[in-house]
Amino acid sequence: MDEQTFADFHVCVARPRSARRWFKPQVRLYVDGRSPFAPLPFDQAFPMLEWGLNWCVSAHCHQYLIIHAAVVERSGRALILPAPPGSGKSTLTAALVHRGWRLLSDELTLIEPESCRVVPIPRPVSLKNGSIAAIRAFAPAAEIGVPVRDTVKGTVAHMRAPHDEPLASLRTIEPHWVVFPRYEASAASQMTPVPKALAFMQVADQAFNYTIHGRRGFDVLATLIDRCACRSLEFGELAAAVAAVDSLARAS
Amino acid sequence: MTTAATPSVVAALRAPRVLEGFNIPQWEDLVGQARRTNLVSRLAYALRDTGMLSTVPAAPRSHLEAALVVAGAQAEAVRREVDLVRSALTPIDTDIVLLKGAAYLMAGLPISRGRVFTDIDILLPFDRLADAEAALHLHGWSTTHHDAYDQRYYRQWMHELPPLRHNVRMSVLDVHHAILPRTARLAPSSAKLLEAALPVAGEPRLRVLCPTDMVLHCATHLLHNEELSQGLRDLADLDSLLCRFGNSPGFWDALPRRAAELDLCRPLAYGVRYAVRYFGSSVPAAVRDAIGAGGASRATVRLMDALYDRALQPVGDHGAGPATSMARSALYLRGHWLRMPLPLLLFHLCIKATRRTPEA
Fold it and tell me: Out of B63, B67, B69, whose CB is closest to A8?
């Protein structure tokens, strides 16, 4: 990096300075010289790096309201997908970014409190278990890394976003839709309006640092929900889910 | 300071003006150091107080602003928690003496601005401990150490109950009956500390240690803590307290006298030595002479200087280097050595080494 670029965190994954360097090798994550997690088997180095990067943001970047949500962009407008783990959020995101949406994040949506706009932090999308094959089938051109087995989240592989060049023109993006995805095997795609009060509570539930922001957190979230069309999306099949999202985008 | 390399975060806290000419790589180094030493929010307050925060380049500034948000939320949470502890302890009919962070905050001391909390510490008379524990259990606090050895370790040898955690809010409360373990070589009298504790204005039933005792406790904590990764933060605390109380009439005369009364001459001597060495704390020469080395030999002091200069260095990107690790291990052992007699220490370290604790 050049002299004018500020690195927010110094992160590395390295073999520990112990016998586990050689014997049943492990890997340790260092964030600014501190090691916040127990070491993992060596072949999990890459997932550990990804979790470490997420931890850096969610444990430190409280200048933003941090929502556990994927977020993608099209025509300068952001679609936020808040959901608990296992809802198909990353899978849907991976599908959307192969159909003209741009990845802003598959895990953490950062809202700048002053402007109530989304700050992008794009990184490879983390696909788990069955999602890996689902995305390979949905987007054969997808660039997916080597799957890592037996992690705490099962088998994990990372997918490169097709449009991963930096968004030079947009530092922040206007949020326009909030969609709560929920994967249900063999369910038909169904998009349902969500009342604003309920949407507020559901997003607050997924906000890591809502309580840290206190009153301001409430105000920022209220503004966000006011500005966005809020829907829930139950889906069992990716093509239909993408079509439902696209028709929402065309309609509003 | 003459010999030790001053970390840039210390230089910045001492004189924020040094940051005016900082370029981006220097800022990156500074923010990293501040994070490694738990001093980001302290630094943020120092810059805000001097009106310099708005002049900081955007990238490092956003980290400082994040730290301000967290510090503000923590202060509010601690006030609320202290209030809840007070109401839970209503039946035990004794004043609650707050220690460390919670005391600094409730007493409105400048040191509390931007100080990161991990738990709340209170001091109670030993004979009220059982009642206090029962009352806290009734109000949702539970013990954190369920292992029989740990329970025995705390109850038989330590100066506090096993830490309590609230079942719903997850906040941690340390209930002390002394400021050093029962097994420690030094034995500051809790009765004297409690007797001299001062009420907190506008806060019924809450007290804090009087200024000399607060300084002595802070120095004792620094010198007896086996965890040197927080060393610079503790020193910054001590510097801030000395600066705050240094102008009060009688403080400097009383400090060495009180140290003698409480059997804390040695921790005070080292504490003052390193606060002056690192933070340039202004301590009158006569007081420094009166405190002296607290009975330590010159060779011991030289060794301690060497260990502290090493141990207080912020860690590198791959954790502490070999020299810093070694110095910290030596001070870790020293911390334990001061806390318990050798046979007990060996027994305790054997238990700790052979037992597997599940990693969080």
Answer: B63
Residue recorded with tokens 């909030």: A178
Q: Look at A213 and B73 and tell me if their CB atoms are within 8 Å.
A: yes
Predicted TM-score (pTM) of the model is 0.89
- Only one residue has tokens 């200069």, namely B309
Shortest Cα–Cα distance, A105 to chain B (Å): 20
Q: Which two tokens stand for residue B327?
A: 């110095």
Burial of A183 (0-12, 13-18, 19+ CB in 10 A): buried
Confirm whether B3 is domain-assigned.
no
Which residue from A minimizes the CA distance to B58?
A: A6
Which residues constitute the domain of residue B207? 8-354
Question: Residues A92, A241: contact at Cβ < 8 Å?
Answer: yes
Q: For chain A, what percent of residues have pLDDT higher than 90?
A: 80
What is the count of structural domains for chain B? 1
B97 is written with which tokens? Answer: 């003496």
Whether residue B2 is contained in a domain is answered as no
pLDDT digits (tens, 9 = 90+) for A202-240: 999 999 999 999 999 999 999 999 999 999 999 999 999
Q: What ipTM was reported for this prediction?
A: 0.89
Identify whether B359 is part of a domain. no
Angle at B352 (CA atoms; ends B167, B338), nearest 5 degrees: 95
**CA atoms of A169 and B33, how far apart (whole Å):** 32
d(CA A145, CA A133): 12
Residue A239 has a pLDDT of 96
Distance from CA of B312 to the nearest CA of A (A): 14
The DSSP code sequence of B74-97 is HHHHHHHHHHHHHHHTGGG-SPEE
Structure tokens at B272: 């003052």
CATH value at residue B139: 3.30.460.40
Q: What is the pLDDT of residues B48-96, one digit of tens each?
A: 999 999 999 999 999 999 999 999 999 999 999 999 999 999 999 899 9
Please, is B117 exposed, middle or buried when counting C-beta atoms within 10 Å of its C-beta (0-12, 13-18, 19+)?
A: buried
pLDDT of residue B41: 95
Token code pair at residue B119: 């738990």
In a domain, B236, yes or no: yes
Q: Domain limits of chain A?
A: 1-60, 64-251
